[in-house]
Amino acid sequence: MQVPKLFISYSWSSPVYEKWVLDFASQLRKSGVDAILDKWDLKEGYDAVAFMERMVVDPEIKKVAIISDKIYAEKSDDRAGGVGTEAQIISRELYEKQEQDKFVAVVVQKDEVGKPYLPTYYKSRKYIDLSEPGTYGESFEQLVRWVFDKPLYVKPDLGKKPSFLDEGEFISLGTTALFKRAIDAIRNNKACASGAMDEYLTTFSEHLEKVRIEKSGGEFDDAVVKSIEDFLPHRNEAIQLFVAISQYASDNENIQKIHRFFERLIPYINRPEHVGQWSKWDFDNFIFIVHELFLYAVAVLIKHERFDQANFLMEQKYYVPGNSDYGRNAMVSFIIFRKYMLSLERRNKRLELKRLSVRADLLKERCVGTGVEFRHLMQADFVLFMRADIATKGASKRWWPETLLYLGDFHSEFEIFARAVSKKYFDRVKCLLAIDSPADLEELMNAYQEGKGNLPQWGFESFNPSALLGYDHLAKEL
Predict the structure, then answer these.
(1) Which of 3.30.70.100, 3.20.20.70, 3.40.50.10140, 3.30.1490.180 is the CATH number of 5-148?
(2) Could you point out which of 103, 131, 312, 476 has its C-alpha 20 to 30 Å from the C-alpha of 53?
(3) What's the whole-model pTM score?
(4) Contact of 359 with 224, CB cutoff 8 Å
C-alpha cells in the first residue's frame, strides 16, 4: 500500500499549542502517515503562500487535516495571516471539487457551551473531535482510518432479493402491523400489551391456512421446502415475540397465551375435516413450521432462565379438537409437536443428498440471524427429549431431538446443567425435567448405560444423556 500523505493546516496560537501539534504530527508518522508540517517541510527562503497552496492542491497529497482551535477559526473567518490564505485556498477547493473527502476538520477546542470552534466554511460538515481526553484514542483511530480510507463501519455488499418478495409468491399472514404493536406494548409495559399479544397470536394462527400447499405437477418435497423458506419472515416475527415476552412479560398469563397459541396450531399438522383424500406428507410444511416454532419458544424461555414458564409449556397438555370423536384422548402432550416428515426423507433419496437428516440441516441453516444460538436450540431439544423420556420411561412415543445430530464431538453438559452443579441452581432447573433430585434420574440413566434406553441414532451417530446432563455433578455444590 502506498504511504498516504497528509498536510496539517493549523494556527501558531502559542508555543504550548505548537508543541502539541508537533507531537500530534509525530504520532501520525508513527502510525504510518506521511504527515507534512510547515516546521518540517517549509525551509528557509521558501515562499510560504506558494507552499500552502501546493500542499492543498497537490494531487499527491490525498488528505488535509484542518486543526481547528479558537484562533484558527477566527483567523480563517477574518482571512488573516497564513491561516486566512489557507482558508481561501481550502474553501475554494471544497466548494469547487466534487470529491470532498480530501479535507477534514480536527476540533481541538470548544467554547464554554461545548460548541466546537470551526471556520464558517466548514460548519455544515462532519469533523473529528480530539478535544475530549476521554475519547482521544478512539478519535485518533478514526482520523488514521480516514487517512487510509479504512473506515470502521463498511457498508456490506448487496445480497440477492429475498425470494418471498417475488410478486405472487410470498403469502402474508397480515400480522406485520399487529406484531409491531405487540412488541412495542410489551417492551414499554403498556396497558394494551395483553390485548395486542392476543390479537397478533390469534391472527397468526387463523391465517396460517394461507400457507397450505396446493398440489401441482412438480415434486411435492420441492413445494414443502419452498413453503418453509417463504415462511421465514413470519417465523422470525414469532421468535422476536417469544424473546420480548421472556425479557419483559414472562408472567403466567402471557405464557398461557403462548400455550393456547400452540394449541390452535395443532389442527394444521393433521388432516383437515374438509379434506377427503390425502397423503402422509400433505401437511409436512405445517409439521416443520409448528415444530420449529415450539422448539424456539422453549429455547428462548430456557435461554432467559424462565424455567417455570418453559416447564408450563411441557407440563400442560394440549387440547385436540375432534380427537374424542374417534375414541382418542382429547388432551395430548407436547410430543405432538414433533412429527415425522416423509417428504424430506423422500427428498434425501430423490436428490441423492446422502444427508443423515435433511430436517436437522434445515433447522441449523435457518438458525442464523435469529438471535438464538444453535447451542440454545440443541439445549432445548435435549430438555424436551429428556422430559418426554422421563414421562414415558423411554417408550415408543418420545420426542426425537433433531438438532442433536450436530453434537459432533461435544460431550460436555449443556449450560443449564453445568450451572446445576450448584444445589440452588439445580433447584431452579429441576422443574424442566419434572424431578425432585438427581436420584430420580438413576433408573433411566442405568437403562441408557445398559443399552435399554433405545437412544435416537443417525447412522452410527448418537449421544450420551448422562454426559449432556452432567449427571454425576448435579447438585453437588451449595
Answers:
(1) 3.40.50.10140
(2) 131
(3) 0.67
(4) no
